[in-house]
Amino acid sequence: xxxxxxxxxxxxxxxxxxxxxxxxxxxxxxxxxxxxxxxxxxxxxxxxxxxxxxxxxxxxxxxxxxxxxxxxxxxxxxxxxxxxxxxxxxxxxxxxxxxxxxxxxxxxxxxxxxxxxxxxxxxxxxxxxxxxxxxxxxxxxxxxxxxxxxxxxxxxxxxxxxxxxxxxxxxxxxxxxxxxxxxxxxxxxxxxxxxxxxxxxxxxxxxxxxxxxxxxxxxxxxxxxxxxxxxxxxxxx
Length: 237
Fold this sequence. Notes:
The protein is mainly alpha-helical. The protein has twelve helices and no strands. The protein folds into three domains: about 1-30; about 45-145, Alpha Horseshoe (Serine Threonine Protein Phosphatase 5, Tetratricopeptide repeat), CATH 1.25.40.20; about 170-235, Serine Threonine Protein Phosphatase 5, Tetratricopeptide repeat (Alpha Horseshoe).
């Protein structure tokens, strides 16, 4: 680029070379600065998402909302694959659940074990969050790693209100999953009388057996839930 100055003498040529070296150094410095700025932006995003996950874990609603306003990704996950929404449902933090749904959280995004937010709210018997998740499009049929779904967890926790919502969503009360266990068997095994009564009222089969040949009545007896025995042996709900 400086060859055309050679005929003007060595001094002119050297000046040209010095000028272009300075320009090259400036260009390199600019590119490095831009690269560092981009990298810093990436690190800032990682940091803010990490802070967001931590805030969700401890249930700090105001902090969660502030970080969302700063650009945190609403579906950020921890090393177990849990999002703040998963964490909120696992702790029955209804207010945080509703805020995250409003912010666009994926209501069907499960963790590494396949546990979805709907399952989490069923486990904690948080009917309010359960309804909010269903209204936001949560699916009722996904299975987690141990082949349980939201209905299984609702029956096991005795969340009658959750079961009512599932029946409205066309869940089969006599459906069987792992080990041929029905919803009635789960509720009976854990002694949830209200849930048992509701399932019976919806046509749950008293005489259905699991893969060990046990009925809901047998499971209730084994759990020493004696108050359920007459109910399960009766011909009336």
